[in-house]
């Protein structure tokens, strides 16, 4: 049988590690929608692909037996973009050993890469004070800053949605790591009333109409297939994705990282699809509804937008169909 190289199609690599029988493979199967009823220990390494908002995450499941920890973990974790570490808190006698290998894993992982620690409660009931005590004991002495700790039960699905949200946010984290920043977001939305233009701009932006007008235009796809454009002008990069009723532009201040450009393009295309689905309802979206949706997804949920400062927001009706 020939080797399976499908995991190389990933955009971001996420490694899942933990001691043997901690629930790693059970967690991955549930994430992928597989039946988690029969799970055996991972012998070596297993690769899976997961689609998160159009971004392909390569999930690497590392075997937790001592022989695999000593021979495989360092190699895979050191090349990973993010780490999910699973520890079974029903096995209290293993917490010290689990923490030891977690600390080693952090030494191998790049300092800036995000980490999620999942405390698997299985079907046992823990009080909130017990969980806090375990997390405090486990995290004591850990100096890395961007670590999230979350108690969960893979069998019941407790806090599973928060894990999915973390996977999505790790994509944005990777854009920050690659030092690419979105300076401006512009969207054109065609409704039954007309075409709305919405702009979000960082307060520090020095973009002017001389830079924007030759490039950014209100354009839509003339077919059922979306269109994508990536342009470079001076020291900026312009990324556009559009279908027949929604057109979105991103202006970035950096363009060195090719992978970051690909990630932003995929995120933007997925965002256009979602916005089109909401826009094509029986009644036309109002200006207030458009504003609320875009602000909620771009700012509150940090899609594309990694800048801490509150952006400047503008929305206007640039084409009124009633006047035509």
Structural summary, described in words:
With 324 residues, the chain is α/β, with parallel strands linked by helices. It has two domains: 6-177, 3-Layer(aba) Sandwich (Rossmann fold); 182-323, 2-Layer Sandwich (Beta-Lactamase). Helices cover 32% and strands 27% of the residues. The chain contains nine helices and twelve strands. The protein has helices at residues 24-32, 66-71, 73-77, 95-108, 128-139, 160-177, 209-212, 258-279, 287-300; strands at residues 12-17, 45-52, 55-62, 82-88, 115-120, 147-152, 182-190, 194-201, 227-233, 236-242, 246-252, 312-320. Strands 2-3-1-4-5-6 form a six-stranded mixed β-sheet, sandwiched between helices. A six-stranded antiparallel β-sheet has the order 9-10-11-7-8-12. A hairpin with a 2-residue loop joins β9 and β10 (236-242). The radius of gyration is 23 Å and the shape is elongated. The termini are far apart.
């Amino acid at each position: 049988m020939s080797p399976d190289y499908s995991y190389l199609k990933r955009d971001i690599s996420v490694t899942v590690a933990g001691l043997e029988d901690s629930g790693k493979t059970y967690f991955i199967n549930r994430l992928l929608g597989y039946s988690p009823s029969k799970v055996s220990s991972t012998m070596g390494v297993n690769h899976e692909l997961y689609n998160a908002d159009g971004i392909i995450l390569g999930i690497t499941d590392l075997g937790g037996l001592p022989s695999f920890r000593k021979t495989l973990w360092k190699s895979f974790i050191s090349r990973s973009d993010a780490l999910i570490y699973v520890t079974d808190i029903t096995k209290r006698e293993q917490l010290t050993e689990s923490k030891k290998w977690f600390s080693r894993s952090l030494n191998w992982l790049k300092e800036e890469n995000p980490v999620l620690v999942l405390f698997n409660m299985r079907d046992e009931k823990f009080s909130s004070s017990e969980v806090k005590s375990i997390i405090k004991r486990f995290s004591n002495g850990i100096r890395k800053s961007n670590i999230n700790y979350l108690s969960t039960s893979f069998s019941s699905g407790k806090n599973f949605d928060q894990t999915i949200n973390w996977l999505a946010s790790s994509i944005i984290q990777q854009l920050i790591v690659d030092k690419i920043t979105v300076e401006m977001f512009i969207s054109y939305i065609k409704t039954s009333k007309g075409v709305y233009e919405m702009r979000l701009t960082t307060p520090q932006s020095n973009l002017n109409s001389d830079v924007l007008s030759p490039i950014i235009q209100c354009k839509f796809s003339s077919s059922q297939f979306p269109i994508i454009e990536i342009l470079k002008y001076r020291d900026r990069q312009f990324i556009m994705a559009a279908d027949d009723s929604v057109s979105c532009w991103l202006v970035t201040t950096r363009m060195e990282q090719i992978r970051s450009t690909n990630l932003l393009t995929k995120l933007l295309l997925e965002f256009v699809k979602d916005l089109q689905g909401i826009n094509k309802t029986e009644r036309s979206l109002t200006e207030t509804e458009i504003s609320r949706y875009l602000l909620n997804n771009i700012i509150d949920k940090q899609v594309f937008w990694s800048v801490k400062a509150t952006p400047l927001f503008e929305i206007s009706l640039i084409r009124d169909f009633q006047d035509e």
